[in-house]
Amino acid sequence: MTSIPAAGSHVVVVGAGMVAHRFVDSLLSRAEDDLRVTVIGEEPRHPYDRVGLTGFFAGASPDDLTLDRDVLDDARVTFLRGDAVTRIDRAGRAVKTASGRVVAYDRLVLATGSYAAKLAVDGFGHEGCFVYRTLDDVERLRSFVEARSRELGRPLTGMVIGGGLLGLEAAGALQGLDVSCTVVQSSERLMSAQLDLPGGNALRRLIEARGIKVKTGAITTRLDADRGGRVVGLEFRDGDYAPADVVVFTVGVRPRDELAREASLDVHPRGGVLIDAGCQTSDPHILAVGEVANFDGLAVGLVAPGYAMAEVAATRLLGGDASFPGYDLSTKLKLSGVDVASFGDAFAETPGALDVVYVDPVAGVYKKLVLSDDAKTLLGGILVGDASAYGSLRPLVGGALGGDPAAYLMPEGGVAAPTGELPDEALVCSCNSVTAGAIRTAVHDEGCTDVTSIKACTKAGAACGSCVMMVKKIVGTELAKSGAALSNALCEHFEMSRRQLFDAVRVSGLTTFSSVIERFGVGRGCDICKPALASILSTLVGKHVLEGENATLQDTNDHVMANLQKDGSYSVVPRIPGGEITPEGLLVIGQVAQDFNLYTKITGGQRIDLFGARLEQLPQIWKRLVDAGFESGHAYGKSLRTVKSCVGSTWCRYGVQDSVGMAVQLELRYRGLRSPHKIKLGVSGCARECAEARGKDVGVIATEAGWNMYIGGNGGFTPRHAVLFAEGLSDEALLTAIDRFLMYYIFTADRLQRTAPWFEDLDGGIEGLRSVIFDDSLGICADLDAAIATHIDGYEDEWKATIEDPEKVRRFASFVNAPTTPDPSLAYTVERGQPRPATVDEREGGRVLIAGTTLEVRR
C-alpha cells in the first residue's frame, strides 16, 4: 500500500454523497493542516442524508436533510458542486470535469455511489414515472402528485414497482401525499433480500393494515399512457391490468462505475470497482468506497458498509493500518407504524444453524433468532411487527447470547432478558462503526450525558437512528454507576418523560402533534412518540382518532378502529357493557355475522368478536350495529377494553350486591378512555369471585359491608394478582376512587407501562397511592375529578362519528378505483360450521372460497 506523503498532498474525492462526506470528515479530523482535499459532486447541493429521504414527505426541508456543512466548508477543502467528473487520466493523475476543469491529484478516492436501476419495460419513460434515489427525484415526485391531483380533482392511484426497503418507504411517502398505493413485487414476498417467507408474510399484513396494497409474484410487462403521454396503467405478465396515475420504480441500484471502466480499472462483471481490504483499487493511487466499490464479489447499497470503508480509506491514506471487515447487511425499515429489522445470518445459511421462532399472528408479530448449533452464539435474526429488541440483539451477533433466546422474543412483560452489559467490543452503531466501549468512553472521558451529545461525539445514532435506544440504555447505565441523574426522555425527539409531556400539553393547551413537537421537541417524531402523544391528545383534547393530524399518529389497529388478523382481515367487537345483552341485540349481531360471513366467538371478557371483516366492509358492519344501539368496544385501542362481571345478586343465590349493574355503570363511565396501556376491570358479586376480578387492573368484589377495590392485576405473559386497595366502599366512594386511580395512572405512567409496575414505582408504593387518592396528599384530586368529568361529558362513539363523515369513510376502500371489490388474497374454508382463514395447502388444493363469494355454512 502506498501512503500519501505527509506534506503538500492533494486528495481528490469524486462524489459528494454520505460516504464521501464521512470520508472527508474522518480524514480532516486526523490530518495535518497542509493536507488539501477537493470534493467534486454532480448535484448542486451539499451532501445530504439519503437514508432519511422519506422524511422530505413528512415536512423535512432540504436544509433539514443536509449533513454537517462545516466538513466541506473547512479551509483545507475545495468543494466543486454541480460539476460531474467525466474522465480519469491515470497516467497524468488528474480528472476532467464536464465544465472543462482539470484537477490533479496525489490520491483519488472514488465515491460515486450508485444509480437507480431502470426496469426494462415498455413505457418506462412515460410522464408520471419516477425513480426514488435523490432529493431531486423526490421533489419532482411531490410536485407531480400535487399538480396532477389538482388537475384531475381527485386523489391519485399509485404503483411502486419493487417491494424492498426503498419501495416500502416510497409507498409510505406516496400514502402521505394522499395517493392510494400498491406495492408490486416480482418475488413471493416483500423485502426478499432480508426476510424469509413467514417474515415477508407478516410484513405484508402490516403493510396492508396501513392501507397499502401488495401484489406479489407480479412481473410488469408494459406501462400504458394516455394521448398526452402520461401513464394510466400497468400490464402484468399474467394478464392482469392495474390503473395508475403515478409509478415509482425501486427495483434496486447499480454501482456508478463507468468512470472506472473507462479508465481501465478492474471492475467486477456484475458491477462495482474491485477493491481489497484496504479499499485499494487496481491502481495504487486510487481508492474506492461505498456503493461503487465491490469487495469479495459484492457491491451493497447500504450506508453502514460505506461508512466503514470511508474510515478504512482515511486511515490508510494517513499511514495507518485498517481493513474492511466485510459487509454488515443489518437493515431496519423506516416506515412509521411498521416495525421490521433483519440482521446477521437471517436466513440461517451457517452450517448447523438453529432457528428459534416466536409468532403472534393476532398482533402481527414474527420474530426469529438464528443460533449456532450449540444454541449459544447469536448468528442473526428477523424481527417483524416488534423490532424493539433490534438494538439489543444486533450488537451481540457473533457472540454469546447470554440467556434464554425466548427472553428476547417474548413481548414486553414476558421472560426477562439478560441484563448483563454489552462487552466493549460489541458494535452498537453499525452505520458509524461505534462500539459500546466508545460510547462508555464518551460518557466518562468526554462528559456526554445524553443521546444528543453522544451523537455529536461519536456519531452513534446519527445515521439511520435504529441504535438510539441502545445508546440511551448504555448512557443511562454508565451515569447510574457514577451517581449522576438519568434521563427519562420519551425518545430522542422529546427530552421529557411521558408524564412531563402530558403535563406540558395540559398546561399549554396545544392540540396538535406539530404544535407540541415545535414547542417542546425536535425533529419530526417517531413511532414511539407519535402514538404516545396521540393518546395524550385523546385524553386532553378528545378529538376523533382520524381527525386531522391524529390520523397520522395512530398505531395500526387504531387507524381502522378494528383488530388486524393473521390473514389481513379484521375483527369487530361491539361494546356489551357487563356482558349484558338483550335477545334483540343477539339477533342483530347474529344477522350481521351471517350476512357478512363472519366467524363469531364469545371472548374471555364476555363480549362477542366477529372475525373476517374486510376493510371496505367495516363501515357497513358498524352502521348495522350502531343502528341497533351498539357502539365500538375499543378492542383495538390502548384504552378500557372490558368490564367483566358475574350475574350478581340479581339472580345468584350467593350474590350480595348487583355486580352486573355496577359493571355496566363502570363500562359506560370509562368507555373510550385512552391510557398508556390497555385497561381491564372486573366486578364480582361475592367472595366466590366468578368474574376473576383480582386478575384485572381494577377489581371490584362485593361484600356485605360494601365494595372492596383491588388494583394492579393482569393476565398475559407475566400474570399479576391484584392487591387490596380499599374496603367497604359505597357506590359513590368506589366510583370516585376508580376515577382518581385511572386518571392518576393516565397522568403519570410511562409509555406502555401497565398499572402494576406503575404503582409499584410510585413514591411510597401502594400506601403512597392511597394517600394521593383518599387524602389528596398531592393536592391534585380536583384536577383528577375534573379530567374524568371532561372525558365522560365529551365521549362520542368512534364508529358512529366515522360513518357519519364521508371523508373518514373514504379511508375504508379496498381499491381506490373499485372501493367495494373484495381483496382476492383473502380465502376461507369451513370448520365446525364457521368460516376460518384457509391454510396454504388448502389454497393450493383449491378447497377454499375467495372473499366476496357466498360462503355456505351448513348448520
Short recap of the structure:
The chain is an alpha/beta fold. A five-stranded parallel beta sheet has the order 3-2-1-7-19, with helices on one face.
What's the total number of strands?
39
Largest sheet: 5 strands, parallel
SS field, number of helical segments:
27
- Could you name the ranges where pLDDT drops below 50 across 5 or more consecutive residues? 1-8, 413-419, 854-859
Morphology call: globular
The radius of gyration computed from the alpha-carbon positions, rounded to a whole number of angstroms, is 30 Å
As laid out across the biggest beta sheet, the strand order is: 3-2-1-7-19
Mean pLDDT across all amino acids: 87
How is this structure best described in words?
With 859 residues, the protein is α/β, with parallel strands linked by helices. The protein has 27 helices and 39 strands. Helices cover 30% and strands 20% of the residues. It is globular, with a radius of gyration of 30 Å.
Question: Which short descriptors sum up this protein?
Answer:
859 residues, alpha/beta, five-stranded parallel beta sheet, 39 strands, disordered N terminus
List the helices and strands and how they pair.
Layout: E1 10-14, H1 18-30, E2 36-41, H2 62-65, H3 69-72, E3 77-81, E4 85-89, E5 94-97, E6 102-104, E7 107-110, E8 114-116, E9 129-131, H4 135-152, E10 157-161, H5 165-176, E11 180-185, H6 197-209, E12 213-216, E13 220-225, E14 231-236, E15 241-243, E16 246-249, E17 253-255, H7 258-262, E18 273-274, E19 286-288, E20 293-294, H8 303-317, E21 331-332, E22 340-344, E23 354-360, E24 365-371, E25 378-384, H9 390-393, H10 406-409, E26 427-429, E27 434-435, H11 436-445, H12 451-458, H13 468-481, H14 498-508, H15 513-520, H16 529-540, H17 556-560, E28 563-564, E29 570-572, H18 583-595, E30 599-602, E31 608-613, H19 618-627, E32 640-645, H20 659-670, E33 679-684, E34 698-703, E35 706-711, E36 723-729, H21 731-748, H22 755-761, H23 765-775, H24 781-794, H25 798-803, H26 806-809, E37 827-831, E38 834-837, H27 840-844, E39 849-850
Parallel strand pairs: 1-2, 1-7, 2-3, 7-19, 9-16, 10-11, 10-16, 11-12, 18-20, 32-33, 33-34
Antiparallel strand pairs: 4-5, 5-6, 8-17, 13-14, 14-15, 21-22, 22-25, 23-24, 24-25, 26-27, 28-29, 29-31, 30-31, 34-35, 35-36, 37-38, 37-39
Helix pairs in contact: 1-8, 11-13, 14-16, 21-24
